[in-house]
Amino acid sequence: MKSAKAKQAPNVTGKKLGRVLLVEDDPVLAMMLEDAFLQAGASEVVICATMQATVKALDDARPDAIVLDVHLADRNDGWAIAEVVTMLGPTPPRIAFSTGSPQDIPPAIAEMGPIFEKPYDPQALVAELSAGRKRGLFSRFLG
């Protein structure tokens, strides 16, 4: 697990990003996303390459946004973390999925956040999470 903190970069994309949990086992994509989030004003980006590291990071501190790689090196159900984070309180973190196989995400889980099919532009993913739009069943109630 790797963590980077921002040096007060301006957020030009909208909603404050805060702490971002980046669950990605591709080190090149993880570094590109980390850089994009920090430039967009994220206060901290925590990179986790395994499910075990992700669980520890969730235990350490609540994220404001999560990017979930669907197929991790140690598990093929990275999307399962989305089910766990919905239990983190009345306002769960914003979620985005990152995958080369969007069809592998169960439909009910896919409704929890936008799906970015690899390869994609990291700036587009950051812009989507920065916009603060919620998806899913309770989105119309939570704003």
TrEMBL record:
Residues 19-133 form the Response regulatory domain. Keywords: Phosphoprotein. The modification 4-aspartylphosphate is found at D69. Gene3D superfamilies: 3.40.50.2300. Coiled coil: none annotated. GO terms for biological process: phosphorelay signal transduction system. This is Response regulator receiver domain protein (CheY-like). It comes from Aurantiacibacter atlanticus.
